[in-house]
Amino acid sequence: MEKMEKKIAAIEIGATTLKIAATDLEGRNVNLLYKERSDAEHLVQQITKVLDKFGDIFGIGVCAPGPIDVNSGMIFTPANLKIKDLNIVDLLEHRYDAPTFLYNDAVAGVLGEKNFGAGKKAENLVYVSISTGLGCGVIANGRVLSGKMGNAHEVGHCVIDANSTVKCGCGGLGHWEAFCSGNGIPNFAKFLLETKYKGRNTRLRNIKKLSAKDVFDMAKKDDEIAKEIIEEVGRLNAIGIGNIINVYEPELITLGGSVAVFNIDAVLNPIKRLVKEYAFNPVPEIMITPLRSTATLLGTITELVSR
Prior knowledge:
It is built from eleven helices and 13 strands. Helix content is 34%, strand content 22%. Helix 6 crosses helix 7 (224-248) and helix 7 (224-248) crosses helix 9 (264-274). The chain is globular, with a radius of gyration of 19 Å. A five-stranded mixed β-sheet has the order 3-2-1-4-8. The chain has a five-stranded mixed β-sheet with strand order 11-10-9-12-13, with helices on both faces. It is an alpha/beta fold and 307 residues long.
């Protein structure tokens, strides 16, 4: 990669994938330079190997799953990524002498949606990320809701089934993320195959290392058990979205993350069909983000392009 003119670096530390992009000072021409599996052991090396080739860096935006501390720049112990107490802001600011900002990944998503996507005219907006994990970012009355350390929107760890024994990646039981995230769907499917669907035939039983993609693919191929599991995941998503509507009263909800973006109808349709059963407040427009996989990367550069 050749050295560039002064650029902004956008970094998304995902539970599964690390993405690094470059953009100009106006936030245009986002150029994805690196996309590989996140390696917690070598994460800093992965990042610096790319950024060292940037040349003059104007600023750096980073997003990661919580819990984080946006004030100190610390990433603590995300449920789906084996990082522990990494001060990513100090490390990057000292190495590159460039202002660096840390965001919760779903907060970055809502900022990207607000500034570059479907939420430009919305004063009350929620972005829900359904990916390896599950979270959301919230803008209420034009202002980002953050919390004391930047973790105010961990909806994936809200309990949607108090009697469930299905365990979340964080260790909790009955969390939304435990049922409907990329990591949660295969675990939930295995639980249902051993309980509700015990003794019933399904091609899912033939897959040694079941993934969320496998469950969606089998549902598309008319495997009846897979279709019922995806429908149940959709009902639980509708409960979660209903809770978001009741708590934040948004005018727009956009859905992002790999599970949502790559399975649009299977994720979106059950939510739209069932959410009225769980929403007390009026149901707003609900859609897949038009930004697809770039919403979070764009969100990390928000403060830098406005400087």
